[in-house]
Design brief:
Blueprint lengths: L9 E7 L12 H15 L2 E8 L10 H11 L5 E4 L2 H4 L3 H12 L5 E3 L4 E3 L2 H34 L11 E3 L10 E3 L4 H14 L3 H10 L12 H8 L7 E3 L7 E3 L8 H16 L14 E3 L6 E9 L5 E9 L12 E2 H10 L8 H23 L12 H11 L2 H8 L6 E4 L2 E3 L1
Parallel strand pairs: 1-2, 1-3, 3-4, 10-14
Antiparallel strand pairs: 4-5, 6-7, 8-9, 11-12, 12-13, 14-15
Length: about 425
């Protein structure tokens, strides 16, 4: 027996429209609601809920309002649906199956549109399935045709999406056949960016600093980020080739002018590979980090290195220590060179608390290593035993002449709490 003849039908008005190409012929959501409301008034139908959403119905289970509609039917809140057309409810097999299953269970008494009525009868359910399946067939066919069109476009040398910065997709021409030209404002700077990396070995941060000073911005008018710079430097589109679809293994040549040559692009990739093998930024260890804190804000002291090209062609390395600003981003504590910091440590050496047992062990290990070396070089002639250790002299020696690793190892023996304030160490 048809449930609609024995049970009052409580309807939910459901309206949907997405922004996709195949939805352009559908009425707007407001127009759908108006037409369905007129039907309800004319037929004296009870609407107990209204649900509307702007989502595609191509994929099952992706529409929150539709999912709520199904839940309301299962819990008995409603047992009827008013909608503008069957394809508003489903354009995929999963959602269609849910509707038919609810009809089979007797929980969904009726689906009604301005021109059709579907109840739990074999013929009407069959017609509902045909109409919704037809919508799914249209979706699938369009998807196949779109993919074919994009492949043909790629084979012609036109990447089927927006070109990266440095290129302009022209607005003239037939849709789908617009051309790509060089951006007269950005392309020269991008070409010079590749040249600076390949020929001068500039780092990403140095490139960003130069681009910012040159006034280079994104299409949205914002400064380019460091991560975007590396993506650009690794993007083969700039030398005239692209992969489509991404990760598909099919490569094509562009049909327009490229910003850089393939040779320049390969030179940049080699340079980036060399940079990658170097110590990553932020992971470099310095001799006196984690030894003291900022005297103003209490943040840890960090360091950075700078290189200066000398007149004789060599490069000199400088290390500067400063507040890490983890507590106060605006901390104004000045920078201090490593040589000046060592002088400060030596100046307060008499007041430092040092774990002598540890420093004595380090001294003995170093003495034994040197003695073995001398005995090996001088035959059987043995060096005398280690002299009595003067801890202060040993610490001063390591601070002045030791390697970075030796300094860090020795300073791990210091138990005093040190603060760096206005380029002066305080205990």
């Amino acid at each position: 027996m048809d449930p609609s003849t024995t049970v009052p039908v409580r309807y939910c008005l459901y309206a949907r429209k997405s922004s996709e190409q195949d939805e352009r012929q559908a009425l707007s959501i407001d127009a759908q609601i108006q037409e369905i409301t007129e039907l309800a008034v004319r037929e004296k139908l009870e609407i107990v809920a209204v649900r509307k959403e702007s989502h595609s119905a191509k994929d099952s289970g992706e529409r929150p309002e539709y999912n709520g509609l199904i839940t309301d039917i299962r819990t008995g809140i409603i047992n009827g649906i008013l909608t503008w057309a069957p394809d508003r409810l489903s354009r995929n097999g999963g959602d269609l199956g849910s509707l038919v299953d609810l009809m089979d269970q007797g929980k969904l008494a009726e689906i009604r549109t301005p021109s059709q009525r579907f109840t739990n009868s074999p013929n009407e359910k069959f017609l509902l399935m045909i109409l919704c399946s037809q919508a799914k067939l249209e979706n699938d066919s369009k998807g196949v045709n779109v993919r074919r069109g994009l492949k043909v476009k790629a084979q012609m040398g036109w990447r089927p999406n927006m070109s990266p910065m440095g290129y302009i997709n022209t607005k003239t021409g037939i849709k789908g056949e617009q051309k790509v030209i060089l951006d007269p404002k950005r392309a020269p700077l991008i070409r010079e960016m590749f040249e600076r990396v390949a020929n001068l070995g500039h780092s990403g941060r140095k490139i960003k600093e130069w681009l910012d000073q040159s006034g280079f911005t994104t299409r949205g008018g914002k400064p380019v980020t460091l991560s975007s710079i590396f993506l650009m430097l690794r993007n083969p589109y700039y030398c005239g080739k692209f992969e489509f679809p991404k990760g598909g293994g099919n490569w094509y040549r562009v049909a327009h002018e490229s910003i850089v040559t393939e040779g320049l692009f390969e030179d940049v990739q080699r340079q980036l590979s060399l940079e990658k093998k170097k110590t990553p930024w932020g992971s470099k260890e310095f001799a006196f980090t984690r030894l003291m804190k900022c005297g103003s804000c209490g943040s840890g002291i960090t360091a950075q290195e700078k290189f200066k090209s000398m007149d004789d062609g060599t490069r000199k390395r400088y290390v500067y220590y400063h507040c890490g600003r983890s507590t106060d981003k605006e901390c104004g504590e000045p920078y201090i060179r490593e040589e000046a910091l060592i002088e400060q440590l030596i100046a307060v050496l008499d007041d430092l608390k040092i774990d002598h047992a540890v420093s004595k062990k380090k001294f003995q290990e170093e003495f034994d290593r040197n003695r073995k070396f001398m005995e090996s070089m001088m035959g059987t002639q043995a060096m005398p035993e280690a002299p009595r250790l003067d801890h202060k002299k040993y610490v001063r020696h390591v601070l002045t002449n030791g390697t970075k690793e030796e300094k860090r190892e020795l300073l791990s023996c210091v138990t005093s709490e040190l603060r760096l304030s206005n380029k002066a160490i305080r205990i």
